[in-house]
């Protein structure tokens, strides 16, 4: 933080780039999150290649999402997803009330659980994005925890056909 | 404890007290970590080996707790031969469901090899075809760190390294483990 310009002077002199406005700490965190997400992405692709081989062809995006919620979820987290909601316009919300990676986690009082859990949700987000991508669905995936040990994943599919 | 008893203990812990996860998930995740390291370190495989060992070391420091809790070992190993037996039949069995063969003891009983007939980390793995990895990368080097870290917590300083790997085209996958010393209990200074 000491390396950044004094905010007022920096802002006045030259228009700050995005990088300037992020503190070093934030930039590092972003970088770490991206790495974790990418590791998951590769794993997701591999899993689908391996485990979707003997099933019938997917009929639509919902079919793909169901495969993700049942088979892939069970494979990775040893349970099925608890709740799946969709707005039928390409947004899917997956809720897992007892998400395995968070199951033994406790947050010290005063530290919001959401902040503590965030690093642990990057890898699973990557796995989901990788799995979907291997099944031909491009998507953005974000996650948050409404309270330990639950996790909510939001999948926004990026599709040519909006009714997908 | 006799060797057969240990084998039975390993089997029992694996069956009843281990949380299992899909083997392919482990393989893929480990592969993805190694691939990322190779990319980040720009093919400096000596450094990749070092980082994998370090990651393993940090796992080992904590894993020993889980090992002791689940295996419920009642007595200390009497000698380093016992230690080797426990690592192979209980440790490897419980965490990876394999039992490496113990071989090539040195005459002073301070060095042995573990032969990994199968290696769950390396299933369907191929090393990068860049003319370097085949000679420099120890793909499963994390295992060395795990053993080093775990033994350090039970007062043994050891050196662990791979001497051959099927992935490199060798006939066997062999880890060499050398006891450097038993670490004495040291009282903290000014401890009343």
Automatic annotation (TrEMBL), chain B:
<dbReference type="GO" id="GO:0005783">
    <property type="term" value="C:endoplasmic reticulum"/>
</dbReference>
<dbReference type="InterPro" id="IPR024096">
    <property type="entry name" value="NO_sig/Golgi_transp_ligand-bd"/>
</dbReference>
<dbReference type="InterPro" id="IPR016721">
    <property type="entry name" value="Bet3"/>
</dbReference>
<dbReference type="GO" id="GO:0005794">
    <property type="term" value="C:Golgi apparatus"/>
</dbReference>
<keyword id="KW-0813">Transport</keyword>
<dbReference type="Pfam" id="PF04051">
    <property type="entry name" value="TRAPP"/>
</dbReference>
<dbReference type="InterPro" id="IPR007194">
    <property type="entry name" value="TRAPP_component"/>
</dbReference>
<dbReference type="GO" id="GO:0048193">
    <property type="term" value="P:Golgi vesicle transport"/>
</dbReference>
<comment type="similarity">
    <text>Belongs to the TRAPP small subunits family. BET3 subfamily.</text>
</comment>
<dbReference type="GO" id="GO:0016236">
    <property type="term" value="P:macroautophagy"/>
</dbReference>
<protein>
    <recommendedName>
        <fullName>Trafficking protein particle complex subunit BET3</fullName>
    </recommendedName>
</protein>
<keyword id="KW-0256">Endoplasmic reticulum</keyword>
<dbReference type="GO" id="GO:0030008">
    <property type="term" value="C:TRAPP complex"/>
</dbReference>
<keyword id="KW-0931">ER-Golgi transport</keyword>
<keyword id="KW-0333">Golgi apparatus</keyword>
């Amino acid at each position: 933080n000491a390396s950044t310009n004094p905010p007022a002077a920096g802002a006045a002199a030259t228009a700050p780039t995005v990088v300037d406005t992020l503190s070093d700490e934030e930039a590092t965190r972003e970088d770490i999150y991206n790495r974790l997400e990418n590791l998951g992405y590769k794993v997701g692709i591999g899993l689908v290649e391996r485990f979707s081989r003997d099933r019938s062809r997917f009929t639509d995006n919902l079919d793909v999402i169901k495969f993700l919620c049942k088979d892939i979820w069970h494979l990775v987290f040893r349970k099925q997803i608890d709740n799946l909601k969709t707005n039928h316009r390409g947004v899917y919300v997956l809720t897992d009330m007892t998400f395995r990676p968070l199951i033994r986690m406790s947050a010290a009082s005063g530290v919001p659980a959401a902040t503590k859990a965030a690093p642990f949700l990057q890898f699973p987000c990557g796995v989901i994005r990788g799995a979907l991508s291997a099944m031909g669905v491009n998507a953005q995936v974000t996650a948050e925890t409404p309270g330990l040990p639950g996790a909510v994943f939001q999948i926004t599919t990026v599709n040519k056909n909006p009714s997908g | 404890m006799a060797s057969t008893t240990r084998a039975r203990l390993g089997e029992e812990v694996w069956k009843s007290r281990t949380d299992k996860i899909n083997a392919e998930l482990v393989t893929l995740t480990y592969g993805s970590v190694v691939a990322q390291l190779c990319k980040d370190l720009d093919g400096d495989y000596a450094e990749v080996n070092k980082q994998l060992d370090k990651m393993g070391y940090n796992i080992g420091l904590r894993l020993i707790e889980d090992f002791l809790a689940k295996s419920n070992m009642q007595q200390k190993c009497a000698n380093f031969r016992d230690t080797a037996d426990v690592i192979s039949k209980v440790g490897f069995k419980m965490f990876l469901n394999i039992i490496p063969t113990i071989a090539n003891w040195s005459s002073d009983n301070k060095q042995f090899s573990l032969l990994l007939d199968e290696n769950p980390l390396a299933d369907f793995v191929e090393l990068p075809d860049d003319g370097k990895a085949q000679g420099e990368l120890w793909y499963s080097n994390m295992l060395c760190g795990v053993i080093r870290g775990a033994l350090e917590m039970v007062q043994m300083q050891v050196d662990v390294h791979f001497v051959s790997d099927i992935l490199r085209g060798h006939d066997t996958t062999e880890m060499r483990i050398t006891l450097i010393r038993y670490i004495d209990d040291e009282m903290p200074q000014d401890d009343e």
